[in-house]
Amino acid sequence: MNAAHATPTTATTTTRSSYPRVWMITGASRGIGARIAEAALAQGDAVIATSRNTASVAQRLGAHDALLPLALDVTDEAQAQAAVQSALAHFGRIDVLVNNAGYGLLGAVEESTADEVRRLYETNVFGLLHVTRAVLPTMRARRVGHVINISSLGGVQSSAGFGLYCSTKFAVEGITEALHAELAPLSIHATVVEPGYFRTEFLDTASLVVSPRVLDDYAASAGAVREAARRINRNQPGDPVRLAQAVMQLVASPTPPLRLPLGTDTLQTIADKHAFVAQETAQWRAVAASTDFPSNAPEQGQS
Fold first, then answer.
1. Do residues 98 and 33 lie in contact, with contact meaning Cβ atoms separated by under 8 Å?
2. Domain boundaries defined on the chain
3. Dihedral angle sign, alpha carbons of residues 36, 37, 38, 43
4. Half-sphere exposure of 82 (CA within 13 A, CB side)
5. pLDDT, average across residues 17-32
6. How far is CA 198 from CA 98, 175, 259, 262, in A?
7. Residue 152 backbone phi and psi in degrees, to 5
8. In the predicted model, is pLDDT for residue 5 greater than 90?
């Protein structure tokens, strides 16, 4: 019988139900995903840790009865469905989904090629949707669960050099906001986590694609960001261990938020963004309000 469709025995079902929570974490072999997996295991939860290469998961997280490493390329919807079925056959349930798999693209919007952008969206957006759609039926059946989508400071405010990466995180923000509204009546939570710069491998070549095309006209904008990324790598202000503990607190809360910004840099970005939007909206309020139909005049085409 295919392991993905195996029926658990009574004994194993009892063992599986003994875990306080069962997590499924994508991109769990390094970075934020690995830190969250470590924290969940440390507090006695079970973890389905997915990665394109399960050997990298075992190397990072070790061997645990509560750990199930699974190979998963999130861009393959059939693999996502199969991974969820294998997870359910092994642990019986999924309580928390952490959509963490993703990578960055550094380069000006014009510098990036269509293929680079397409691959980025396939992982960061469509991959997240593949896994979410695979997990939600079991959460809906049980009327319990928490979907956590890892966004970024770049999901709050875009920037030169990271515009296309930020656009994928803007998509994640919008998807999560809709999920929050759709799932709340079913007693399922959805939260988008917005980390700032944390000291992980994100700016390494394994997690960041740098567009090879360089246009001199963008030297002062996207070019400056390329240089800054090299300087800040491995010197980011955020502590990934503390980030993982914050996610543990998030999941333990009976009333988790729609958004959880993490890091003082993200908090400052949110404050700056809100101030900018408020100032610009006030400046253009008269023009914005002038586009409604006059309140007492008939609409065009009516007599």
1. yes
2. 3-264
3. positive
4. 12
5. 92
6. 17, 24, 18, 9
7. -175, 165
8. no
Tokens read off for 79: 């693999």
Q: How many CB atoms lie within 10 A of CB 215?
A: 13
Sequence-ordered strand ranges (E) for 3-139: 22-25, 46-51, 67-71, 96-99, 104-106
**What is the separation, in whole angstroms, between the first and last Cα of the chain?**
72
Q: What is the DSSP string of 176-203?
A: HHHHHHHHGGGTEEEEEEEE-SBSSSTT
CA distances from 158 to 151, 153, 163, 165, 261 (A): 12, 8, 6, 9, 15
19 in Cβ contact with 62 (< 8 Å):
no
In the numeric block, the tokens 């960041």 are attached to 208
Structural element, H or E, at residue 210 = strand 208-210
Distance of CA 286 to the CA centre of its chain: 38
Interatomic CA distance for residues 149 and 282, integer angstroms: 33
User: Using CA atoms, how far apart are residues 90 and 68, in angstroms rounded to an integer?
Assistant: 8
Count other Cβ atoms within 10 Å, centred on residue 180: 19
- Kindly compute the dihedral angle of the four CA atoms of residues 210, 72, 82, 142, in this order, to the nearest 10 degrees: -90
Q: Give the pair of three-digit tokens for residue 78.
A: 């059939």
The catalytic residue positions are 151, 165, 169
Amino acid at 175: I
Share of the chain above pLDDT 90, in %: 72
In terms of Cβ atoms closer than 10 Å to its own Cβ (0-12, 13-18, 19+), residue 142 is middle
Domain 3-264's class?
alpha beta
Please, which residues have CB within 8 angstroms of residue 172's CB and are 6 or more apart in sequence?
99, 124, 125, 128, 149, 150, 151, 155, 192
Residues facing 68 on adjacent strands: 48
Statement: residue 296 has pLDDT above 70 = no
Q: Using one digit for the tens of pLDDT, what is the confidence trace for 206-221?
A: 668 888 899 999 999 9
As a whole number, mean pLDDT of residues 190-210 equals 77
